[in-house]
Structures are given as structure tokens and as C-alpha cells.
Amino acid sequence: MKTTKTRWLIGMLVALAMVAAACGGNDDDGDADAPVPAPATEAPVTAEPEPEPEAPEPEAEEAAPAEPEQEQDGLAEAPEEEEPEFQPAPTEEPEPEIELTATWRGVTADTITIGVTYLDADLLVELGFSPATWGDQELQIQALVDDINERGGINGRQLVALTDKYNPIGATEAEAACLRLTEDNEVFAILFGFLGPAEVANTCIVGTQETILVGGIISPERLAEARAPWVNERATREVSSGALFTLLEAEGMLQGRSIAVVADLSAAPQLENVTNLLREHGVEPVLETATSSQVADLIAQNQEWATLSERIRASGADTLLLVGNASAGVENARLNGLEVDIWATDSAGLGANIGANVDPESARGVITVGPMTNAQIYETDPRFKECLDAFNARHPDIEIKHPDTLELGEPLWFTSLSFHCRFFQILELLLTAAGPNLTHETFADAIANIGEFSVAGQPYASFGPDKLSSNDSFQLLEQDPDLGSRGELVPAGPMRDATP
């Protein structure tokens, strides 16, 4: 049996792996009046002498009107029309220029100050939780800020970014970063927020400090505590599950299946919602259950799955749908000889982030759903290229390599640049849509009314009154254990806007 300390360390490794997966990828001077012509001056009136009366002439028959002269072709010659005097088209008066003033905490007549939090990736490397650093993140952040400002800023104001690095192991450093940015520096909004075990500190931003947050993990419980606008860039489990079923149905893979649905402990609260979505697509699960063992307790998991595998076999299932982290289900399906296709609602725990205790071959052919892959973003995404060009223009000596060409230990510049790029593009869109009178209310209105857009890694994205997560871009992905050191997820279908 493993000690409690060992189990804690394994749990922290799993949580931080999920953090890395989340970060890797998965908005004229004064008026001039038109000239008015002056009125014509009247000439003086001169009295004319009255004419002398003429002698009356004898009455004569009324002469008939003269016949108009006829042209040879029989048509009357039309009188020449005078050309109309040219009248200039009325000019529209320019809208009066809005005088920019300080409108909210962090917003002056000239600047918008935001806070930008980011993971201490160097610390993760030192602790053995990450194979490589993410490059100089402050350099990337400033390059993106400079690019926005050189394009005119946001509605006439320049963007100022204050950065704060945090340790994701626990919430202590994250809460301190929250207070530094909101109380000491009084920023208008915070970008990225906190991930992993530190994500509980997001409520410090949107709750007690009443500051806008673009990022973090939104849950109904945390959203209920929010007293400032809050959006992020990722889809909820319910949305991604619905997208998975929509795409499977479009490919003719869903109907006629006998599906056993198993959620891990962390995803148990979403089990009912996921199975209801499956029913909406015409499939009644043959089994639906959740595990009760912790992800880090491998011995307890294996024991529980030995019994669960017999239930799955007895149910007659030909497909196993894993809700939540898929690693344990993938490995135990192989260990217990289950002959089933495996689908997963979450891409976390698959791809290069497959569990260290999982044989990559066990995951061959596992189907999940997700956004653009790193390779797709680097090779084909025009919105990411905007950020790549902006960074390269300022730092031509630094090469942002294709993510599939990196050697072990090389800095993951692409991972962090694509992540920062997406968030800054979302923020720019919302700040611009909020207009020059920048307040919490106008920012909330921008969220509710901005509709559809695209950002790096998300060709289909949107916000709305009841939609606070931007991603609408989904494709089927398949695990290929022959790629990379631990396998990779590769596209298994077209990219679609798969949300309702």
C-alpha cells in the first residue's frame, strides 16, 4: 500500500498535468457646416410710364394655331432643355468627437490598466511537474500589448498590462496576486485568472474584489459569488459532451450503440446531464454509474474497476463512454479484457497528457472531442498567425517552433504564445465593443451582444446573455500512440460549430 504522502504527490502530479493540458490547447475634429448660399439682392423697382391707349382694330376671326414644323421623319423637333444647375450633394456632418474621461477604476482618459496573471512554469520544471519552461511569458505578453497599442489602442486609449506570476500549488500565492492587482494597482480587469489547485482564488477577483475576469474555470457555484462580469475561453463538460454526440451522430457512429456511461469521481455531478444529452440524441444507456475512488489512489481504482468491468460486460455494452478524466478507464478496460470501443467526453488525460501509469497502446483508437490541435493552430490558423507575426516583428531572434518539432526539454514557446494570444484577442474584442464609456455595465453589455467571432484556436466562438464560455469549435479526435513520446490526439473528422 502506498503512503498518504505518496498518494498526495500523485494527486498533485495529476492536477498539474491537467493545468498543463488546459494551457496547451486545448476584440474628426470639430463639426464643419456645409456652406449655405447667400440670398440674392433685389434690384430697385423703377416705375414705368403707362402706355397710351391704342385705337381699336376691327374684329377678326380667331386664328387657328400654327402647325408645328415637321421634320422629314414626321416627328416634332423637341425643344432644347436647359441643363439643370449643379447642386452639390448634401454632406453628412461628422459625429461629434467623444471626449475621453476616467470612467471606472483602472480607466483614465488615456489608458486602460489590466492585470495579467501567469503560471510560474519555471517552478513547475524545478519540481518535476513539467518537462520544459514556456519561454519568456512577460516578453510575449508585452509584445501583444504593444501590437494592440500600435494599432491605435482600444477606442483611443492605450492598454497597460501589469503582470503577476503565481505558484499553482495551492491558493496562497494566487490570492496574494489577486490582492496586489486589484487593491494595490486597481486594475480594470484581470486576464487568465488562476488554474489548477489555485483556481479557488478566482472568486477573490470576481467576488470580494469585484473585478472583471477573462479566464479561470467557471462553475455555477463560483459564478453565484461573482459581483463583476466573468467569461472564459473553454467549453463546459456539458457543452463538449453535447458536441461529441452531435459529431458522432453526423458521422453515423451513434445510432444502434449499446453504451455504458462511467464518470470518475470529479465528474460525478455531471453524470445525469451527460446521460440526458445522450438520450436527446436517441440513445438509452445500458449502464450509468460513477466511480468512488480518488484519481491518485491507483490501487483503489484498480480494485473498483475490476468489479465495474464485470458489470459493463454483463450489460452487453459495445461502447464505453468515459466522463471526466479518461486515464483510469482506458487502462482498466485493457487490464480487464473489455472488448469495447472507448469514447471520452474530456480530452484531458489523453494525447500527450495521458496518465504516466497508462500504456499508450491501451488508448489506441479512443475517440474524444476537442478544439483545434496545436499542429492545426500553428499551420492553418490566421488568428494565431497575427500574434505570431506580432511577436516575430519585435523579437526576430527568437524562433517559435512548430510544436511537433520540439526536442525534449526545449522551451514550449508555442504553448504559451497561443494561450496568451487567444485571451488578448477576446479581451480586445470585448473592450472595443464596450465603447469609450468603459464601465462594468458596458463590458457586460458587450458580452451579451457581441455574438459570433473568431480568435486563435477557435474559428467558431461566441458570447451571449447566457453563454459565458467562448469556444464553439469542435472536432472528433482520435488517440494515436505512435506519435510523440506518449501518443497524440489527431483529427478524426471536420471542424464544426457543434454547439446548439
Descriptive overview:
With 500 residues, the protein is an alpha/beta fold. Helix content is 34%, strand content 15%. The chain is built from 14 helices and 15 strands. It has helices spanning 4-25, 121-126, 137-150, 172-184, 202-208, 220-225, 237-250, 271-280, 298-315, 327-335, 374-380, 382-394, 413-434, 440-449; strands at residues 111-119, 158-166, 189-192, 212-215, 230-231, 259-263, 287-290, 319-323, 341-344, 367-370, 451-455, 458-463, 473-480, 488-491, 496-497. A five-stranded parallel beta sheet has the order 2-1-3-4-5, with helices on both faces. The longest helix is centred in the first third of the chain and has 22 residues, at 4-25. It is globular and about 75 Å long.
- What overall geometry do the principal axes of the alpha carbons give? globular
- From the alpha carbons, calculate the radius of gyration and give it in angstroms: 35 Å
Order of helices and strands: HEHHEHEHEHEHEHEHEHEEHHHHEEEEE
C-alpha termini separation: 47 Å
Number of strands: 15
Question: Could you estimate the helical fraction of the residues in percent?
Answer: 25-40%
Low-confidence sequence ranges: 1-22, 24-79
Give the amount of beta strand, in percent: 15-25%
Secondary structure tally, helices:
14
Q: Structural class per helix/strand content?
A: alpha/beta
Side by side, the strands of the main sheet go: 2-1-3-4-5
The pLDDT mean sits at 85
Largest sheet: 5 strands, parallel
